[in-house]
Amino acid sequence: MAGVEDVHILWTSEGMSCDGDSVSVTAASLPSIEDVVLGAVPGLPRVHLHNKVLAMENGDEFMQAFHAGARGELDPYIFVVEGSIPNENINGDGYWSGMGNDENGEPIPVNDWIDRLAPGAWAVVAIGTCATYGGIHAMAGNPTGCMGLPDYLGWDFRSKAGVPIVNVPGCPVQPDNFMETLLWLLYQAAGLSPMIPLDDQLRPTWLFGKTVHEGCDRAGYYEQGDFAYDYNSPKCLVKTGCWGPVVNCNVPKRGWMDGIGGCPNVGGICIGCTMPGFPDKFMPFMDEPPGGTLSSTVLSPYGTVIRKLRSFTNQKLNKEPKWRHNKKALTSGYEPRYPNT
């Protein structure tokens, strides 16, 4: 792939999707989507983005790139899938979700596009929790049989270049998380970076290797057993339903837009939206998570003692040393080596 001059990004959000991930990515800044498409990032191949939310083209003109990719005329390309994948085997007499029309004017199911484009892609990326693990549309009781892209293609799927499916979850995706992942893949395609490191759930390890709690501004309150009981408090939100201690996500540390925001940073509980078990395993959202009562009970006596001891130390440290004064005698302990005689 070294020396490749052009890479197409075929991005479909025609699965069960709200286009929230496409909208979210417009807020990225490290790098921005504009920087990548306009060639402002050194070392990248020229990028051609095909995303209906961000495209100037529409209708048949927009679909041309996808048909060309399916015919093998856009090599290399990165295939980005947004939205959960419905089970078209149980669609009755219709279609769950389609993108474009065939020669008979019938909708082409998004599943067919995945079948056509994934095998020939240099890399396949699932953006957002719906595409990665099924998300909201795949919760219990749904009629569509929705699933994530690895469930559809198989967790052992490898792209044309031998790259596993790359999952970048989030509801919606944190914009810089996705653009940073895309940047890695583009550099990898250009021969300038190694294989992208992924965890067992196919998430980039440098983004999802730590929990919300480990990067949270409120984590110190948890350690002190100091909990919030309403949403106006700056303290730890575990008792109000936050799943941060067990959720893999970097948003509290990274922020949401340009380092600002992020759920617990602005008073919102973590509901686990980057996790494969979302949403079912995290509901009801406002209840204290399992284990929260036990951990808070264990921490309470310890935290009470620690807070008291720290308050004593805090009071001491909030006073200046006694030798800082404007009196006539120096009391700092200084002893001149050559005193005046």
Q: How would you describe what is shown here?
A:
By secondary structure, the chain is of the alpha/beta class. Helix content is 28%, strand content 10%. The protein is built from 11 helices and 7 strands. The strands form 2 sheets. The protein has a 5-stranded parallel sheet, with helices on both faces. Strands 4-5 form a two-stranded antiparallel ribbon. The longest helix is centred in the C-terminal third of the chain and has 26 residues, at 292-317. It is elongated and about 100 Å long. The chain starts with 5 loop residues before the first strand and ends in a 24-residue tail after the last helix.
Count of DSSP H/I helices? 11
Name the shape in a single word. elongated
Order the strands across the largest sheet as they lie in space: 2-1-3-6-7
State the low-pLDDT regions, or none: none
Report the β-strand fraction as a percent range.
5-15%
Q: Calculate the mean pLDDT score and round it.
A: 91
Total number of beta strands: 7
Radius of gyration: 26 Å
H-E order: EHHEHEEEHEHHEHHHHH
Report helical residue fraction.
Answer: 25-40%
Largest sheet: 5 strands, parallel
Distance between the termini: 82 Å
Structural class: alpha/beta
Keywords, please?
341 residues; alpha/beta; five-stranded parallel beta sheet; two-stranded antiparallel sheet; 11 helices; 7 strands
Produce a short descriptive summary.
With 341 residues, this protein is of the alpha/beta class. It is built from eleven helices and seven strands.
